[in-house]
Amino acid sequence: MPSKRPFLENSVNLLEQLKQYTVVVADTGDFLSMQAYAPRDATTNPSLILKAVRNPDYRPLLEATVREQKGKFTGEVIDHLLVRFGLEILKIVPGRVSTEVDARLSFDADATIAKGRRLAALYQQAGIPGNRILIKIAATWEGICAARVLEAEGIHCNMTLLFGLPQAAACAEARAKLISPFVGRIYDWYKKATGLEYAGADDPGVQSVQRIFNYYAAYGYDTEVMGASFRSVEQITELAGCDLLTISPNLLEELAQRKGRLVRQLDRKEHKVVDSERLLLDQAAFRLMLNNDAMASEQLATGIRQFCNDTVSLEQLIESLR
To answer: What is the tens place of the pLDDT at every residue in 154-208?
Structure first.
């Protein structure tokens, strides 16, 4: 069982207490907003970058990138824009930045490998070592296969849009560096499906991450677990002790403002007994298990569609500036 030891007294805010157990990551493309919270890492995705470039503060960065990449295909311009944001973020955080592969490649392993190599090469050309970047890939079967190849080449991957143990198990077997299970989107699905409110340890999103974390600990996987997509501070505090948690600026602010005792919930050295045998999945078994989980299969599809749509919107915005 995890050692549920309070760490600091009530006078210390929840954010500082959380940092004693968990690596705090900023979940935003708005790199100006993250400085106040001193995260170690940062994550981005197409939706966050689109939101950022619509902000007047970042419009000059977008316009400069379009000018500098004049004559190149729009997809290439986006690659440079994503890396440019990443480079700005790396000036602020001491750790890593996650940069996402085009979601439209989610079912094409070869194209995902090529795009991952391309993004890694752009960072390398800017003088960024490989241990400071993560290539973010949807946790489809094809994405997981791509991650296996990229990891073997020393290009580390963050597996996103992850909603259940089969995806997590396959990612670990592929030796992916990190996974991002989506707490809030799991919660959203169950709330809509059942009409119920969930809180604390009863939250299905929290339970999913806890199960994955304990599974990794039980079977000795090195793949890091980074809870993502939070809806509330309570979801975050229920996962104190998770390897990493990526948190939006508004929730980082709330954590910084709130006091009280934070209790550690997860610990790789004192994990709970797991309820699953080790899953060694081939493609057919993976697809069947994913298909049989209505929440995971629906949320994966929805997430890919959303990221695809936001990438198209970003392309249209770039085209309007040419």
So the answer is: 999 999 999 999 999 999 999 999 999 999 999 999 999 999 999 989 999 999 9
Instruction: Choose among 142, 222, 149: nearest CA to 179.
Output: 222
Assess whether 136 carries a catalytic annotation.
yes
Q: Extract the tokens encoding 80.
A: 């440079």
- The CATH number that applies at residue 243 is 3.20.20.70
Total number of domains in the chain: 1
Q: Which domain holds residue 164?
A: 14-320
Q: What phi and psi, each to the nearest 5 degrees, are found at residue 203?
A: -70, 120
- For residue 298, tell me if it sits in a domain: yes
Kindly state the tokens that stand for 270. Answer: 């004192």
Rounded to the nearest 10 degrees, how much is the dihedral formed by the CA atoms of 28, 30, 31, 33? -100
136 belongs to a structural domain: yes
Residue 4 lies in a domain: no
Catalytic residue among 51, 70, 115, 136: 136
Do 186 and 299 contact (CB within 8 A), yes or no? yes
The torsion region of residue 154 among left (phi > 0), alpha (psi -120 to 50) and beta comes to left
CB atoms within 10 A of CB 189: 20
C-alpha dist (Å) from residue 244 to 26, 175, 178, 183, 192: 10, 17, 9, 13, 27
